[in-house]
């Protein structure tokens, strides 16, 4: 059955005629407090330099992704790391590797996932920003409404961190 929900680009808007320079205020609103840094990365991305290294993403990984509301990438990283841990546990149980090798594999995997996150974080964040800005412009009747929507969808959040901390605290208290 066909969906009757309109896509973001079915709404009448100025999206098709708006230049990237005209969208600057939208991007800066989406990026939040670090708008200068991320707008510079966006310009690099649009100029063809798609992959730039993000040290925060490298060192903080999953918490940084959640902080920046990059939930899809965070879910991918979580599934990949958990899958790698399950595989490593299996290899240890079956005695395919010893604990010393497992230790070094785990450290190598940590470095690998840190590098993947560091190199791909800005790329995926710029793609997400472009999608959210285009959708907000296309779906809202005026600039103020679009900017309000972008300030809610973009920026940063500590909500996932608080939820995880409460869950860990509850699990810790239940275990005692």
Automatic annotation (TrEMBL):
Membrane-crossing residue ranges in chain numbering: 51-67, 73-92, 104-125, 158-175
Statement: the UniProt record of this protein carries the keyword Transmembrane: yes
Keyword Kinase among record annotations: no
Keywords per UniProt: Membrane, Transmembrane, Transmembrane helix
Coiled-coil region: none
Pfam families, per database record: DUF2628
Listed name of the protein: DUF2628 domain-containing protein
Source organism (scientific name): Nibribacter koreensis
Biological classification of the source: Bacteria, Pseudomonadati, Bacteroidota, Cytophagia, Cytophagales
């Amino acid at each position: 059955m066909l969906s009757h929900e309109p896509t973001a680009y079915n709404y009448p808007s100025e999206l098709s005629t708006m230049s990237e320079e005209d969208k600057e205020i939208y991007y800066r609103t989406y990026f939040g407090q670090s708008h200068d840094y991320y707008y510079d990365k966006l310009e690099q991305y649009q100029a063809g330099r798609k992959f730039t290294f993000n040290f925060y993403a490298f060192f903080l990984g999953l918490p940084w992704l959640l902080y920046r509301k990059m939930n899809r990438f965070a879910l991918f990283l979580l599934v990949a790391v958990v899958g790698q841990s399950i595989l490593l546990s299996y290899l240890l149980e079956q005695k395919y590797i010893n604990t010393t090798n497992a230790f070094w594999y785990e450290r190598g995997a940590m470095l690998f996932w840190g590098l993947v996150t560091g190199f791909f974080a800005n790329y995926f964040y710029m793609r997400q920003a472009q999608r959210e800005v285009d959708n907000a412009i296309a779906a809202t009747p005026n600039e103020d409404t679009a900017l309000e929507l972008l300030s809610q969808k973009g920026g940063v959040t500590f909500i996932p961190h608080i939820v995880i901390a409460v869950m860990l605290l509850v699990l810790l208290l239940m275990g005692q």
